[in-house]
Amino acid sequence: MEKIILTGDRPTGKLHLGHYVGSLKRRVELQESGEFDKIFVMIADAQALTDNADNPEKVRQNIIEVALDYLSVGLDPAKTTIFIQSQVPELCELTTYYMNLVSVARVQRNPTVKTEIKMRNFEQSIPLGFFCYPVSQAADITAFKATTVPVGEDQAPMIELTREIVQRFNHIYGPTLVEPQIVLPSNAACMRLPGTDGKAKMSKSLGNCIYLSDTPKEVAKKVKSMYTDPLHLNIDDPGHLEGNCPFIYLDAFATDEQVNRFNPDFASLQDLKDRYVKGGVGDGTVKKILINVLEEELVPIRERRAHYEANIPEVYEILKKGSEEARRVAGQTLADVRKAMKIDYFSDAELIEEQANRFVKK
Ligand code: TRP
């Protein structure tokens, strides 16, 4: 069986370091692994509209932001098909059929949807399109016969639902769709990178993000203002690692070699941690190492971004070509689905003959 990746993001803002360690970096590694026959990365504008129906301009503006973020982290249009969800109408048709296979109660139990409903204060006026987005996400994944979906853990309920839909579909209509596997980030720090305030996950509305497009100055400023350990007042005080942002970021980004290279006083990340806990290492020292580590990651990203920012029409062309290819592939799956569901009336010569015979006067 072919190995196929599908994943994507809602274009509601620029992507940040949480997206990067939580998913983008992994996608590029998977792209470079050569293990996959096809890779699709989707800008989920239709899904973004499910809770931004009154703000189409925001979605439109963020298409290009997300595309630039993708290209700048190293997604390569020669290896990865980057496309825009709304330009593949086949996905809507699949969603319609899948809605018959999912109960309202099943979607109501989805923990991610539950949290989002609370966060957005929808209360009794949940848009129906928003409520159904997990089903449309199953269409996104299955349209490409994806075997592998690299996402953050908040997306796990969507992949689970997709698997259920695939099982139900194949059970009723015969083997047609492929069950996908989720691929999660490699460690806990990557899974849930906190914002610079140390509180929740990075989120635009909390103003606690470091963006992939931030300048070196912005990055340094944000790291210097990071939440650390409120009990570590003097350098010689013992420090605590739990909830200490710079250390969580180092866990997500740094290698021992980097820690040692950027500050030869420390042999490894563990050495830095041990001596911080004992007392005698200042927060500034830790933050300085972190700034260097982040910059090493961000410099090539900024270089690629500068190239594409100077060639915006080329970026739209990449998205257009990608969307055409995505449509072609989704169209093939849709043909399989229509056939399995017995709604392929005009491409089934046998059906016409069978019906003709049925009505022949004996
Ligand atoms: N729900 C994802 C997000 O919030 C975006 C998305 C839409 C997606 N369809 C998908 C992710 C299919 C993986 C697979 O960013």
Explain what this protein looks like in three dimensions:
This protein has 362 residues and is mainly alpha-helical. The chain contains 17 helices and 5 strands. Helix 4 (90-98) runs parallel beside helix 16. The chain is elongated. The structure holds tryptophan. Residues 6-10, 44, 47, 137, 140-141, 149, 151, 155 line the site of tryptophan.
Question: In terms of topology, how is this protein built?
Answer:
Layout: E1 4-9, H1 17-33, E2 38-43, H2 45-49, H3 56-73, E3 81-84, H4 90-98, H5 104-108, H6 111-119, H7 128-131, H8 133-143, E4 148-150, H9 156-173, E5 181-183, H10 188-191, H11 216-224, H12 245-253, H13 256-262, H14 269-278, H15 283-309, H16 312-340, H17 349-358
Q: Provide the spatial order of strands within the biggest beta sheet.
A: 1-2-3
Chain-averaged pLDDT: 95
Spatial separation of the terminal alpha carbons: 49 Å
The gross shape turns out to be elongated
Which ions, cofactors or small ligands are bound in this entry? tryptophan
**Largest sheet at a glance?**
3 strands, parallel
How many distinct helices? Answer: 17
Radius of gyration: 24 Å
